[in-house]
Specification:
Blueprint (H helix, E strand, L loop, with lengths): L1 H16 L1 H13 L28 E6 L3 H10 L5 E7 L3 H13 L6 E3 L5 H7 L5 E4 L3 H13 L3 E4 L7 H14 L3 E3 L7 H11 L6 E9 L13 H8 L7 H10 L8 E8 L4 H8 L3 H6 L6 E7 L4 E7 L11 E4 L2 E4 L5 E4 L6 H4 L12 H10 L3 H13 L5 H14 L8 H8 L1 H9 L6 E2 L21
The structure holds nicotinamide-adenine-dinucleotide.
Length: about 475
């Protein structure tokens, strides 16, 4: 018995120092295979638009394209903005344009020019000389064509999420923004939610130490909403496409925490999904058996992303399963932890915090801090942006106020000739999960290289910041 055990140990030692180890090395070589994604060369004479500053615009003249649920809500919010003019309104449907026109009228604002009735009526809006900003809230497939045309006509653009769907679209948007030197911002409102913007401020001031892992998600059962989208565009996109097709609400706040293209960069991703079950069941229940059989979008899609600096991002997408809404929003750092869904909380060591926050209580980062300490901490680290407009944002609303903060920051930066809070590279990186997760999934969850959309400039700016007038 003893001899057998000894032989076993000697055998294992031999294996670990010879054959087994070299096999491992061979295996790890094979595992190292990553799907390479081509980065098109920047055209000669074209420069990046990092920290782009344009001429200040005293009164920002806006044309809105796409006046469905989201676009109409945007026009409503803009009736509360100062130093803007709503110059033009455009939708496929006249009734939607007229409904927004009435909203302007009720707010005592001048009548806007109206465009409707044709798929490309927005081109006429973009051709106007008296518009500075085209604000887009159509279905997804129209986003990139409208942004590209508007920038070619000299307009700044702000576009709903996700602003681009394929790598081809993304590169066209990046190239056009660089060539025309126009602002191109994706309207990712979740970075302005109160917990996220406060936590970002804390992270930037080092409260969590070195942040190593961040989570974000769009887990939102759309069962009650599928019927609301114009011509069923959202369901059709989910039927036709595998992958995380709505990544930006989770990824945007995560990338800001990790200073993506401001000192770090997403390098590799891997995606995995579960079979679609609830969407096919929904379609069958509505007598659409053929569509039910065709659904490509997984019930739950998970994406893991590793950055050049060795940080990890975990992103989820699920619009099908009955479950509570969650954008996850969780971070782990070397000094603490933050979590938003389902319970907002921070875990930090009381010894690292001022007594105004702890109230003299002792706690460790192994558990959530007491609620009164959390509220004091959030007060202490309230971002200047929130300090300025919290009350007004909550009155106007739009997802509790974050949408009003987003619009206000956009207008403030345009009026003052400042770089916008989110640039075209944020748009590119956050949207790139759509084609890249699809690529990974269709290749057995192989790792996929995330392109450097800045083409070499990702490390020039050190750390994420919001621009202010000096
Ligand atoms: N950030 C957020 O929190 C949030 C919330 C909801 C929706 N969204 C985004 O907003 C966008 C719109 O979503 P929605 O819920 O309002 O959808 P919707 O279907 O209600 O509205 C889309 C509108 O676009 C119009 N449209 C389509 N093609 C057009 C064209 N060629 N020219 C002019 N108008 C055109 C349609 O007529 C419709 O009125 C989507 O990108 C969606 O993802 C974002």
């Amino acid at each position: 018995m003893k001899i057998t055990r000894m032989l076993l140990i000697v055998g294992m030692l031999l294996l670990s120092t010879t054959g087994f180890c070299s096999n491992q090395a061979n295996n790890s070589k094979q595992i190292d295979k990553t799907i390479k994604v081509v980065v098109p060369q920047r055209p000669a004479g074209q420069k990046d638009v990092l920290a782009l500053r344009c001429d200040p615009i005293k009164t920002v003249r806006i044309g809105f394209v796409g006046l469905g649920a989201r676009g109409t809500e945007a026009v409503r919010r803009f009736t509360y903005q100062k130093n803007i003019e709503v110059v033009a309104l455009c939708d496929l449907h006249q009734w939607r344009v007229d409904s927004c026109q009435r909203m302007l009228q009720r707010a005592g604002m001048p009548r806007a020019a109206r465009y409707y009735g044709a798929e490309d009526a927005w081109k006429k809006l973009c051709q106007r000389k008296d518009i500075d900003l085209v604000y887009i809230a159509t279905d997804w497939v129209n986003h990139a064509p409208i942004m590209l045309y508007a920038m070619e006509k000299g307009k700044h653009v702000a576009c709903e999420v996700p602003a681009a769907l394929t790598l081809d679209e993304i590169w066209k948007v990046v190239d056009t923004a660089e060539r025309t030197r126009r602002h191109c911002m994706m309207l990712e409102n979740c970075v302005y939610d109160f917990f996220e913007i406060t936590t970002l401020n804390m992270a930037r001031k080092g409260v969590f130490g070195d942040i190593t892992h961040v989570k974000g998600a769009y887990n939102h059962c759309l069962w009650d909403y599928w019927g609301d989208y114009n011509d069923n565009w959202r369901m059709l996109y989910n039927i036709a496409n595998r992958g995380d097709v709505y990544p930006t609400h989770g990824l945007g706040p995560a990338c800001q925490l990790l200073n993506i293209h401001r000192g770090d960069r997403m390098q590799t991703l891997v995606a995995m999904d579960s079979n679609p079950v609830s969407l096919p069941a929904y379609l069958s229940m509505h007598g659409k058996d053929a569509e039910a059989k065709a659904v490509k979008n997984g019930e739950q899609t998970l994406t893991l992303i590793r950055t050049v600096n060795g940080k990890l991002i975990h992103i989820e997408h699920n619009v099908a399963s009955p479950r509570p809404y969650s954008r996850m929003y969780q971070l782990s750092g070397t000094r603490g932890f933050a979590n938003k869904y389902p319970v907002e909380g921070y875990a930090l060591e009381s010894k690292d915090l001022p007594v105004e926050v702890t109230g003299g209580k002792q706690f460790t980062a192994h558990e959530y801090m007491p609620e009164e300490s959390m509220l004091k901490l959030m007060q202490m680290y309230k971002d200047p942006i929130v300090k300025d407009m919290e009350q007004k944002a909550k009155e106007v609303g739009g997802h509790g106020g974050m949408d009003f903060i987003m619009d206000s920051r956009l207008i403030y930066c345009l009026r003052n000739g400042l770089p916008l809070d989110m640039d075209v590279y944020d748009l590119a990186e956050w949207c790139s999960l759509i084609p890249l997760t699809k690529l990974s999934l269709e290749n057995g969850s192989m790792p996929v290289e995330v392109p450097d959309f800045t083409r070499g400039a990702w490390n020039r700016i050190k750390g994420y910041s919001h621009a202010f007038v000096e």
